[in-house]
Amino acid sequence: MKKINAGIIGANGYTGLELMNILARHPLARVNTLVSVSNAGAHVCDMYPSLTTYRGRVFDALDTDAAAKANDVIFSCLPHSASAELCAEFVKRGVRVIDLSADFRYRDIDVYEKTYKVSHPAKEIAQTAVYGLPEIYRESIKTASVVGNPGCYTTCSILPVYPLIKERAVSADDIIIDAKSGTSGAGKKAETPGLFAEVNESFKAYAVAAHRHTSEIEEQLSIAHGDKVSLSFTPHLLPITRGILSTIYLKPSANIGRDDIHDIYSKYYGGEPFVVVEKNALPAINWVKHSNYIRIGFVLDKRVNRLIIISCLDNLIKGASGQAVQNMNIMFGIDETAGLTVQAEYL
Amino acid sequence: MKKINAGIIGANGYTGLELMNILARHPLARVNTLVSVSNAGAHVCDMYPSLTTYRGRVFDALDTDAAAKANDVIFSCLPHSASAELCAEFVKRGVRVIDLSADFRYRDIDVYEKTYKVSHPAKEIAQTAVYGLPEIYRESIKTASVVGNPGCYTTCSILPVYPLIKERAVSADDIIIDAKSGTSGAGKKAETPGLFAEVNESFKAYAVAAHRHTSEIEEQLSIAHGDKVSLSFTPHLLPITRGILSTIYLKPSANIGRDDIHDIYSKYYGGEPFVVVEKNALPAINWVKHSNYIRIGFVLDKRVNRLIIISCLDNLIKGASGQAVQNMNIMFGIDETAGLTVQAEYL
Amino acid sequence: MKKINAGIIGANGYTGLELMNILARHPLARVNTLVSVSNAGAHVCDMYPSLTTYRGRVFDALDTDAAAKANDVIFSCLPHSASAELCAEFVKRGVRVIDLSADFRYRDIDVYEKTYKVSHPAKEIAQTAVYGLPEIYRESIKTASVVGNPGCYTTCSILPVYPLIKERAVSADDIIIDAKSGTSGAGKKAETPGLFAEVNESFKAYAVAAHRHTSEIEEQLSIAHGDKVSLSFTPHLLPITRGILSTIYLKPSANIGRDDIHDIYSKYYGGEPFVVVEKNALPAINWVKHSNYIRIGFVLDKRVNRLIIISCLDNLIKGASGQAVQNMNIMFGIDETAGLTVQAEYL
Amino acid sequence: MKKINAGIIGANGYTGLELMNILARHPLARVNTLVSVSNAGAHVCDMYPSLTTYRGRVFDALDTDAAAKANDVIFSCLPHSASAELCAEFVKRGVRVIDLSADFRYRDIDVYEKTYKVSHPAKEIAQTAVYGLPEIYRESIKTASVVGNPGCYTTCSILPVYPLIKERAVSADDIIIDAKSGTSGAGKKAETPGLFAEVNESFKAYAVAAHRHTSEIEEQLSIAHGDKVSLSFTPHLLPITRGILSTIYLKPSANIGRDDIHDIYSKYYGGEPFVVVEKNALPAINWVKHSNYIRIGFVLDKRVNRLIIISCLDNLIKGASGQAVQNMNIMFGIDETAGLTVQAEYL
Fold it and tell me: What angle do CA C290, C292, C297 make, to 5 degrees?
């Protein structure tokens, strides 16, 4: 079978690292281009010695024309705004794009511009982009020119709540998402608050009532609801490298029972290869680390009439690069799980 | 000034360790008795080499009469039920008791018995016990025979919420406490789920909608409210040794503003030596580690009409042994901060 | 191609976990038997929810006859002595055995018995066993009935030193191995010193001048030397889950230069799929985590005439279960890297 | 008693943090000046919220004259070279100086200049400086104008070896120091290799055969020996915040026994308040964390004729700020343990 030729722009960051790792074991993809503007010419293995299959390979400088010619798909790991600008160039050249920034995640560009405090550099293309959550938008992803790959917090928030909102099983105006993430979500930028001694043996909330992923989650849940949804989203920083766990508090609708919730999840996710809904357990981060799974468990607390959902995933895999490859697989009509079949690493 | 003679029963556990450490630097206390039933005769420093001031000292066997004669106050670090049984012996012999178990924390013994699934072994004494939260019960603590020292999760939950409930600043029937604790809260028992490899690089919720501290928190907030309060309490296990951080979601009453909340906290805690309410910040665990402080910050999110409170403390100090010594200081009429003036350790 | 039928005895421990994980992605192996005496009947996924491919599978009780019939090879993850006793049963029934305990690692059974303070329960079989270091004993492994799979510390010690001793590039009577291991090497036994709070934020040496792996290392290096080698081996406990790094101090022979050492390593390991000798760098544990690689770097310090070698590997993979599968591949004449091609996880 | 007025230059780093913390509990010191050039005007508690006793205090700009007038002693936490330049200004103004950089640690300025690749900016003063190891240079420290406060690795290396070299109990030409340090030793500079995700779950050696502390250790041991000593020093980075543990390999002289070594340590350190030599144990980092102790244990391995010493200390306390305060106490003739009596924190 013909291989998919793939290029990664911004390959030197942590999502780039994971893309390189996943694509190296992908049976039907070939990494043709590895752009790092700041590290062009440097050996991949000098930065990431773990990537033994890339021995001898150097990061490429950015050459848009060459990259467009050489690749069927471009993964962009650039920061927002810069990403859309470059992605537009690839789209114009007929190359399909999977963008890991926020630039193509919003249906309402105004909300994007308010949230990120920038003017969108590629509005028209943005309007044709598809939100890269396979479990919800698989059909549109198949033919999309541009996929806006969801954020880590958003995937971990939307997937457990979307079906319940859509099916009116829970109230749409009483949603609290208390999310906890490992530090790799903050990327590789050298800043004092990211130092080991600052993060280790501590824990904190940040961007409370002000995190940018809130509007992305709200837009998707509003689509499910058919009307505007607002919610509380509180991110926290865990002293671990990978993983997100979200504790979600919802108000169940009258007469909704445990089985109803299981039925709804079965209806939406029964056939999904990367969604596990727990029967009688609540997932932990070491159930998903290094894998493309999202796992969802819940407790229906009749005493106080709350539905408490625990969802977790690996922020770098299902929350970023794994999901991006899942999208690629869908876009190119191959087995959706190709390259993504590794089990989680419990230890 | 005459020293307070203090005995510790169950000194070999982590709360015992911290009591030994605090009392060693206490200017007006002397540790006369260090009972460990399972380790009687063993050297304190063989178990805890850090306790250099205890060099040569061995753990005592339990001799209730001798301990009663030798001490003005007994700290009990025994498990619940066993603790009340022994504490009763000391009370009968006229020794004041600070119990770190749950046995003397409940005003309603039925709730205790349902929660802990035991028959209370010292009901009469329990009815005279005072709940050891100095910020709320200081006056009663002064003359108490028995103080039921609050749990770590409970202190971190009750102190930030109590004044707001009492002053009708928030709704009493929409309270969510999402709590995250380090592993030392689980004590020193050797069990597989507590192993380093099981806890490290992971994170999980546990006892969801079923944790025993829920009823203790509810009882105190019900007292504040004047009527029954029910709430959601969700504990999580952090891969750190010490510290608790709680994210608390409340519904503010109409017209309640940021300043109102600050005013209420000032009224209740303005003079408190160990409560810090943040002006414009949210506390993190490394702001309180190794200290007796509880720190409280909040965000009033008008957009979704939620008050989000972040509270944190060291589970072994303000959440256990530090608070116990604070109670001792109050009971014996000395400076409440004696032995407890160490600053937090940021690193 | 016909699949290799494999059974794991003692599957519930950490090396069992890793074997299950590796074999699940092995293209030519099928896990037929999963014995856990203490957890027979329990669901694999209740203990290790990460093992999603084992959904529905339960741990088997021990039935030696059935296991012998159903499998071409048995991996034994039992404790020493118990392991040899059971392995002998399989050998008698004509099943090939890879034993992860120490029971079949020693050529000199007396040394084994002195080291482990037991009488060897299967001396005759032990005399036919092959030491499972493929880089040294590949030819004998091919036809072995029983392979004694080396320990984690030993693999990390022997591979970097063996060629240098054999080629007389370093002195054989001045060898210091300062080794540091993650906690998973101690297994899953619930003991207080293994608790998170005891290990976290600390570091210690243990079994100094008394660790059992010393005699295993010495025996192999003595074979290389042609005469008795004695050495200092000092293990330390790292507050991490996986990985070993050894710092090895040797006295270079006269006139030995950097290139000579590279030449020797090339001669011995140039074609090895899982040995990487660094050109100009020293490896770290995140260069090998989750992979079957051992990586070796060195500095020749002319100033003090020392050769300092840094070697590292994942104690559960190349130090245990990965090496065991590598041995299986050799024994059954298939591609030696089958199931073992995953790159290391840098994060 | 009159208080000692103390100023800290470079107070915003981690050693400054610890100095502020120790001096806050010092009964006879008052912190008059807190210079941070980069953070002048910023609130101390905005950077280090744990320093509750500094509430309201801001970092001062550098005003050498004012600082000289206001203080009896200056602690300099500046980088090498910049430190000596400024310290010289204080010395000229008659203020006593404790310098935490390397600038005043060397007796042989040439070695300093080669090691640090700079020209020393204050050579004459450097020649009068005293090396701030109280256990060796207490008498000279009493009257010193300038104390060169030793580094963390050096204190942990010199104290255990110095007496043995001096007493000819071990060979002076076969010394290996394998040292492991927490990350706080690298300070607060924002650099990618210091990020949590890069350090966590890994371990590595660095600056092998090239670390700058080597020449400092060698100079002191050469003084003990009376002749030039060269040694191997290998530092490693532990994924913990605080603490150093060194494993030291020495060749014992003929007929030296365990008791001889104990006798030598007793002779040198029997009366030392901050040196603990273990009778029958090897110290771990959680035996010293947050305290000013160095703890030393050893094994005499007759089998291979090696003496293996384990020493450990808190790199920020006995390895930096605690030792600096100990020096201050000696210089001003007060109780040497003032401010330094806290026990280690086991958890």
Answer: 100
pLDDT computed for residue D126 by the predictor: 97
Contact of B209 with chain A, judged by CB distance below 8 Å, is answered with yes
> Above 90 in pLDDT, residue D279?
yes
Q: Partners for D (CB, 8 Å, 3+ pairs)?
A: A, B, C
The residues, any chain, with a CB within 8 Å of residue D237's CB and separated by 6 or more, are D180, D181, D183, D186, D199, D203, D204, D206
Catalytic residue among D87, D152, D156, D312: D152
Which domains does chain B carry?
4-150+318-331 (3.40.50.720), 153-314 (3.30.360.10)
Please report residues of D whose CB lies closer than 8 A to that of A240.
Answer: 200
Task: Residue C241: list chain A partners with CB under 8 A.
Answer: 347
Sheet holding D244-250, edge to edge: D204-205, D232-237, D176-181, D244-250, D306-313, D294-301, D275-277
C49/A293 CB distance under 8 A: no
Q: How confident is the model at residue D23 (pLDDT cuts 50, 70, 90)?
A: very high
Reply yes or no on whether the pLDDT at C140 is more than 90.
yes
CA distance A228 to chain D (A): 38
Residues of chain A contacting D197 with CB distance shorter than 8 Å? 14, 182-184, 188, 241
Residues of B in contact with C198 (CB under 8 A): 196
Q: What integer is the mean pLDDT of B248-271?
A: 97
Which of A45, A77, A87, A152 is the catalytic position?
Answer: A152
3-state DSSP helix/strand/coil % of chain B, to nearest 5: 35, 20, 40
pLDDT, tens only, A14-51 = 999 999 999 999 999 999 999 999 999 999 999 999 99
- Give the length of chain B: 347
Condensed to tens digits (0 to 9), the pLDDT of residues D282-296 reads 999 999 999 999 999
Instruction: Note the pLDDT tens digit of each residue in C241-286.
Output: 999 999 999 999 999 999 999 999 999 999 999 999 999 999 999 9
Cα separation, C124 vs C144, in Å, equals 14
For C197, the closest of D303, D308, D347 (CB atoms) is D347
